[in-house]
Amino acid sequence: MTLDAAELAALVGAALPEEGLTAADLETCCFGPDTEILGEPTAAAAVAVKRVGDTTVAWLLLLTVRPDHQRHRRARVLLDAAVNHARERGAVELHLGNAFPRYVWPGVDFRFTAALALFEAAGFEPYGAECNMAIASGFRADPPSGVVVERETGAGAVELAGRKYPHWVDETARAVEGGTCFAARADGETLGFACHSVNRAGWIGPMATDPERQHRGVGRALLGAVCADLETRGHAEGDIAWVGPVGFYAKCGARVSRVFRTAKLTLSSR
């Protein structure tokens, strides 16, 4: 049986109501051309299988079971189906969560004890951790002299991403299309960009400043613009996703809010 985004959102809402995942979020992250939804309205998983160079790799984007159907090995049966799906499509590894540029989580939240135990029992091997940071949407910072921060409607942010941060081109382009990308410019040159609500409503990222223009206040101003936009949309906080520079965001008042384990299951030799 194939679920649509609304049905999957209803299932996730019952199992993980605190996540606030919408049908639009799940449509973005779990219904792409490389992704398959396995299961039914009471238990479902989303698996993406992609070519990475000369290798095929899979990601488990989501696995959830309705509360009244848990404790009946439904999760393990579904996980086994996801593993078989990935293996049948030639994947050599199955990773948990971190399938940029379209992901629901950067890994498995350390608060999800049952999920951590499930993946451990299935043989997944941890290899790292990632974090999100929460920041009040009231944060503001003035841009440096001569710099203007504005909502991106042109190609500057995507072009900068293409030159300096190619792994963020897809997300940046989607943010521009959705009206949730801001760019910092001086004399017509794009110095940096910041986006929000690309994969999940209220989540911040990607965000970057040209390496030659860093440490001058451009990033703070961009973050302030994103926070202001989130505040107008009713968000008291923004969740900075898959954080790199913890120190930078901490100086802006952000705090680590979630920590995720990254792990993989080896399916075959390369």
Could you name the key traits of this structure?
single chain; 270 residues; Aminopeptidase; 2 domains; twelve-stranded mixed sheet; globular
* β-strand number: 12
CA-based shape: globular
* The top level CATH class name of the largest domain: Alpha Beta
- Let me know the CATH homologous superfamily of the largest domain: Gcn5-related N-acetyltransferase (GNAT)
What structural class do you assign from the helix and strand content?
Answer: alpha+beta
Biggest β-sheet, characterized? 12 strands, mixed
Rg estimate, integer Å: 19 Å
Through-space gap between termini:
32 Å
Strand content range: 25-35%
The percent of residues in helical segments reads: 25-40%
Description of the molecule:
The protein contains eight helices and twelve strands. The protein is an alpha+beta fold. It folds into two domains: 5-130 and 259-266, Gcn5-related N-acetyltransferase (GNAT) (Aminopeptidase); 138-235, Aminopeptidase (3-Layer(aba) Sandwich). Helix 7 links the parallel strand 10 (203-209) and strand 11. Helix 1 (5-15) packs across helix 2 and helix 5 runs antiparallel to helix 6. The radius of gyration is 19 Å and the shape is globular. The protein starts with a helix and ends with a strand.
Short description:
The protein contains eight helices and twelve strands.
Topology:
Elements: H1 5-15, H2 23-30, E1 35-40, E2 43-52, E3 55-65, H3 74-88, E4 93-96, E5 108-109, H4 113-121, E6 125-136, E7 148-151, H5 156-164, H6 169-178, E8 181-186, E9 189-196, E10 203-209, H7 218-232, E11 237-240, H8 246-251, E12 255-266
Parallel strand pairs: 3-4, 10-11
Antiparallel strand pairs: 1-2, 2-3, 4-12, 5-12, 6-11, 6-12, 7-8, 8-9, 9-10
Helix pairs in contact: 1-2, 5-6
